[in-house]
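Hello,

Our lab assistant flagged a job as stuck in the queue for most of the afternoon. It eventually completed. Since we weren't sure the result was trustworthy after the delay, we are filing this so someone can double-check. Below is the sequence as submitted and the structure that was eventually returned. Let us know if re-running is recommended.
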Amino acid sequence: MSTLEAIIIAIVEGLTEYLPVSSTAHMIFTSSILGMEDDNFLKMFQYCIQFGAIMAVVALYWRKFFDFKRVNFYVKLVCAVIPALILGKLFSDKIDDVLEKPIPIAVVLVIGGIILLFVDRLFKNPTILKEEDISIKQAVIIGFWQCLAMMPGTSRSAASIIGGMQQKLSREVAAEFSFFLAVPTMLAVTVYSLTLKNWEENGIDMKGYELLAANSDKLEMFLLGNLIAFIVSIFAIKFFVGVIKKYGFKIWGWYRIIVGSLLLIYFCFFQKP
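-- returned structure --
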């Protein structure tokens, strides 16, 4: 992976992490279309630059994240992230296998898009209009909804937002709680990828941090990728909140259907997956 390719992937991550369109799918498709070598460093890079994206949430909502008097806020996030931690650990290897298959991911993009066309109609009359009114039970249920995103193409953001709306959260509150929930979720993914998961490099199993420490170019790309994802995510979050307040989710449903369909055509007829 070149520095330019790392920058492109980081921009894609920053633009799509908080949109209901699946950042993982977009990074996979981008790397495939660019003809990038599908190695373990690329996979680790795609996982770990999400750290830069989650720091954008902390920066934008720093008052909430650093208000240590609001213990209930932290409890809800911890409870909500537990399902993803458990199921993610159990199915991480199977998820890695799916990451190499673009056609199923494109199909999921289309299916998710169809669902988003009807979300605003399905979940009307919300009763929870601020984060403080979300119960711990509702937070856990939203956490289970988030687990649907373990299938690349689903979108962590879409799954958790739909879960929130199903639990009677307004669109805005569901989106914000999805942002908040991304912080512990993506932090856990980054820590696991860097310190616990083994990545094969030249026939040798290495931890993520060992892989970075062994190659200064890869370390520089890793740091640059996180910085770019952080900056781009700040603008993407502000844009997304504005769009859902005005238009709801239908626009993202059509986006997923169109992009997923184009990618299906591309990978079925122009490039062997």
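-- support follow-up --
The delay was a queue issue, not a problem with the job. The result is valid. DSSP finds 13 helices and two strands in the chain. The two ends are 19 Å apart (CA to CA).
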